[in-house]
């Protein structure tokens, strides 16, 4: 068997059963069900695992990645971890250009999988640096901000639910996940709507509101894994029904709420999506509507215990979750 055949089989063979749905009670909103699609059960612990698989699958199928190709990417956090995992599985060198200054926590997760981390400032410099490095090495710039999408997520989720939900909520990262979900719902004639949860400093909410596809803030997000300083090309505003801005402190409060009720030490990206889902549940309740809201979560990791779940760390970052914690209590308690 050729390497290409083996590699493609690796990228297309199912690894595990569907990730579970967690029912989060909402006594304050009778008739509205809140479900959490727990992507932390992926092999690399996040929703980025599916996207990394899709990126590698497309690159191998197109002949852009072959045996020995050096993979180069511009990203940080969970996306880099997932890509490093697939690169190691395929026996490929992996180098990621991350924004900002080196932090051991971010670097170690990739380096433990055999990858190499390089850091660049300002944040927007990582894209040109990655392209240049890939050209220099004769490698392949994976480009997670392109249009490769994890179609299996939508198929799996809607099959699990049976009845279409009123809303599906995901964080604003590359834009690929919201595009996949929106396209699936529309292609299959489903009434489900897609909402994108956007953290502070991110470009998606103002770009979507102003209908400006090249909108940029130039500022990095404080929420690992989501929030972009520019609207990425994978974001499809025509497939998104609503973009909800979420304060970072509210995302921290929601992440802690999730940990309390599920035991999962999720990060603020999951908290951002949960806060937006609760906002939608509130709006449905106010309009007398019933139905299901699904929020995607999936960055549960012990490292978050020393950041988003630690009062000293959040105080140093000027994040005060207390007011939002009180609001969460009101929203979720009968």
Automatic annotation (TrEMBL):
Its cofactor is pyridoxal 5'-phosphate. The keyword Cell wall biogenesis/degradation does not apply. It holds the Pfam family PALP. Coiled coil: none annotated. Keywords: Pyridoxal phosphate. Residues 14-295 form the Tryptophan synthase beta chain-like PALP domain. PANTHER family: CYSTATHIONINE BETA-SYNTHASE (PTHR10314). This is Pyridoxal-phosphate dependent enzyme. It comes from Actinomadura luzonensis. The lineage of its organism: Bacteria, Bacillati, Actinomycetota, Actinomycetes, Streptosporangiales.
């Amino acid at each position: 068997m050729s390497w290409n055949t083996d590699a493609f089989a690796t990228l297309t063979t199912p690894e595990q059963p569907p990730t579970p749905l967690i029912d989060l009670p909402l006594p304050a909103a009778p008739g509205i069900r809140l479900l959490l699609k727990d992507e932390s059960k992926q092999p690399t612990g996040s929703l980025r695992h599916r996207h990394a698989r899709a990126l590698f699958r497309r690159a191998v199928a197109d002949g852009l990645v072959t045996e020995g190709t050096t993979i180069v990417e511009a990203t940080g956090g969970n996306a880099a971890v997932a890509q490093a995992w697939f690169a190691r599985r395929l026996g490929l060198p992996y180098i990621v250009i991350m924004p900002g200054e080196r932090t051991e926590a971010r670097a170690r997760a990739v380096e433990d999988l055999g990858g190499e981390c390089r850091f660049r400032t300002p944040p927007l410099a990582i894209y040109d640096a990655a392209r240049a490095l890939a050209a220099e090495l004769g490698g392949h710039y994976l480009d997670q901000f392109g249009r490769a999408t994890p179609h299996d997520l939508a198929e799996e989720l809607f099959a699990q639910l049976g009845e279409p939900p009123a809303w599906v909520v995901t964080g604003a990262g590359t834009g690929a996940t919201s595009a996949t979900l929106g396209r699936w719902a529309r292609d299959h004639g489903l009434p489900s709507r897609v909402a994108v949860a956007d953290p502070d400093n991110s470009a998606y909410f103002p770009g979507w509101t102003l209908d400006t596809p090249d909108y940029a803030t130039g500022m990095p997000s404080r929420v690992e894994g989501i929030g972009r300083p520019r609207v990425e090309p994978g974001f499809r505003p025509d497939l998104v029904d609503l973009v909800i801005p979420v304060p970072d402190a509210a995302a921290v409060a929601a992440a802690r709420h999730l940990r309390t009720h599920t035991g999962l030490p999720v990060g603020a990206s999951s908290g951002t999506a949960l806060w937006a889902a609760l906002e939608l549940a509130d709006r449905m309740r106010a309009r007398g509507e019933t139905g299901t809201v699904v929020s995607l979560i999936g960055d549960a990791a012990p490292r978050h215990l020393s950041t988003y779940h630690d009062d000293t760390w959040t105080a140093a970052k000027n994040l005060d979750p207390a007011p939002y914690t009180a609001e969460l209590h009101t929203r979720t308690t009968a």
